[in-house]
Write a structure and sequence with these properties.
The protein has 11 helices and 11 strands. With about 300 residues, it is α/β, with parallel strands linked by helices. It comes from Enterocloster bolteae 90B8.
Amino acid sequence: MEFRNLYSFLRVAELGNVTKAANELGYAQSTVTTQIKQLEAEIGYPLFEHVGRRVTLTLHGQQLIPLANQILSVEQQIQQINHTDPAEIHGTLKIGIVESIMNSLLIDNIKKYREQFPKVMIQIYPAVTIPLFEMLHHNEVDLIFAMGNHFNSNGCICACSHNERAVFVSSVEHPLAQREELSLSEVLAQPLILTGDITFLRSELSKEAYSRGLEINPVIQTESSNIILRLVRQDLGISFLPEHLAYSAFMDGKIAVLPVSDYSLAFQVHIFYHKNKFLSPQMIALIQIIQDYWKNHDQSIDPFPD
């Protein structure tokens, strides 16, 4: 149902004349006549009776008047939302996110988002990828940040993606940190500090190890990437992490990135929303902030060894 058809209907009803309504609205008379016919076709009943040059409302036309006013009132409120100062927008933004992304990508950009939307409350739900999509389908979150290469994302729309890779990291004191080249088997023979079996990076590493007849036996397992980084710095083991998570610690000289020559893992980080979800200004702003962050990140020099 077209809003403009409702506007024309209300003007014809008020003025009792199609020509006068058309002149006031800036339409040709034939245009207004067509709009009324379209509206009548949608409703299934005539809205006006034509007696001479004057038109009068039928019973169904009279019943439509208050409903049309309500619909157009809501439409005007929506238009006002679109022009509202972001600083005055209230509400809640619910974000589902893989924990390792939360501790780098999202945390780095929350401040900028809060500067734009100081009155919006942000709720963050860390989870692994499959539960994140379930949360999206049940409308428990507005956006999800997922990492991987292949998703069962039926009913979801990818707002944007970014290419990433995973790296093996150790403390700067670790003996392997002094090597110029390493094999995967050498790294996996060391004490490992890894995330759980169902996380994307752990799952991919396990598949690769299995294909080579290698075993993965972590000495410490935790879902917290912050804990992993702290343990790695203390030289308690080697880990396998997204490069964006290891970047700051590497630049500060607190960890080393190991040059594993016979295995690499490239993947993507995606932002998804449900196809039936209205893209609110709050959601659009966060997506844009993350896109800008990725663009600036790509323009910086990659410090990691190949």
